[in-house]
Amino acid sequence: xxxxxxxxxxxxxxxxxxxxxxxxxxxxxxxxxxxxxxxxxxxxxxxxxxxxxxxxxxxxxxxxxxxxxxxxxxxxxxxxxxxxxxxxxxxxxxxxxxxxxxxxxxxxxxxxxxxxxxxxxxxxxxxxxxxxxxxxxxxxxxxxxxxxxxxxxxxxxxxxxxxxxxxxx
Length: 169
Description:
Radius of gyration: 15 Å
Order of helices and strands: EHEHHEEHHEHEH
Largest sheet: 6 strands, mixed
Strand order of the largest sheet: 3-4-2-5-1-6
Helix content: 25-40%
Distance between the termini: 33 Å
Shape: globular
Number of strands: 6
Number of helices: 7
Structural class: alpha/beta
Strand content: 15-25%
């Protein structure tokens, strides 16, 4: 099994990136697929959707893993950062990811750090879904570099369509 990595993104906020990621994860799981969802947004909305009430109490999040990559530290075992809920595995997020975003701009090869984290996990999953923030910053570029495919969510409204225009440039 070699998992396919799919990024769910858009330049516009409020266009159901997180809801799409969450529902797609459960839909794929119902089809018998092994799914890992990655909350790659410092707002941690996907983490909340999976039932984590206090994201600040989560000891290891995707932000911590990214910091380990930046500081060239050893990675923890997947059991230390992958949480399972109702048949779906996920890597939670927190505000730590905000600090990572600013540090990434100073790093050589920064666009491959998420790939480095996810690559060893690909053989354990059919799908790895990445929920992203509404921006085209260093974190989103990391998600794009890691992804095999991209789903761009959009509401059929003027401002959302304008955001789609900039996403595809």
